[in-house]
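sorry for the late reply, my laptop died twice this morning and i had to redo everyting from scratch. anyway the thing you sent over, i finally got around to it. pasting the sequence first so we're on the same page, its 258 residues, then the predicted structure underneath. double check i copied it right bc i was rushing
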Amino acid sequence: MDVGQQYNPRTVEEVFRDFKSRRAGMIKALTTDVEEFYQQCDPEKENLCLYGFPNERWEVNLPAEEVPPELPEPALGINFARDGMQEKDWLSLVAVHSDAWLLAVAFYFGARFGFDKADRKRLFNMINDLPTIYEVVTGAAKKQSKEKTAVSNHSSSKAKPNPKQRVTEPQREVPKSLQLKDDDEDEDEEAVDEEEEDEHGDALCGACGENYGQDEFWICCDICEKWFHGKCVKITPARAEHIKQYKCPSCSNKRARP
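ok and here's the structure:
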């Protein structure tokens, strides 16, 4: 079996592409192709490994015969625990070992082609910006992405000088454990924020009539208390930071008339 001689990446960018491609193949095995992967990991067979390839394909196979192998070896015997634990736990265990193998392969190439400290750091940072296979398989990556968005928007709302200013996401409740709180923030302001989240839980945009979409920036008019997509009223998060009391276009026009 030849798992490492298809090509040898020599630059940081090439090693990272190799990492992403192998990672994509292993994620397929543990998610979309999980039934086929499960069947191939027969506990009655010898030590088996999960390999990821630079062409985004995966393979369950025996370890390489030569010692040492062309590339670092994946975890041996992933098939033996298949019938001894819950399927999701087994897949998570294989995912953890797959993450370790991918890092080993990437830094094997880095050492082989003489990456210096700066190159190794750059490679690690590029890799670290991606969710791990374990996070993808367990759903933690999607959860973290949602929580990060919720915390970011909630923090943006807290930064307003006027506690009534509402620049948050309707239909999204931020867990208390994830809220970013300043030490000098009082409980009254927190209560106002929670009440407003409940009150506008199923708000529609006052401009386009559409519901809240994931990762979209919203702002609430302090006069009519309608919610608007930031893009619909041409308000960016940065601009909202400097607005003490927001008036939507309709309310602004009403006040302007004699």
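The radius of gyration is 26 Å.
thats about all i looked at so far, will dig more tmrw
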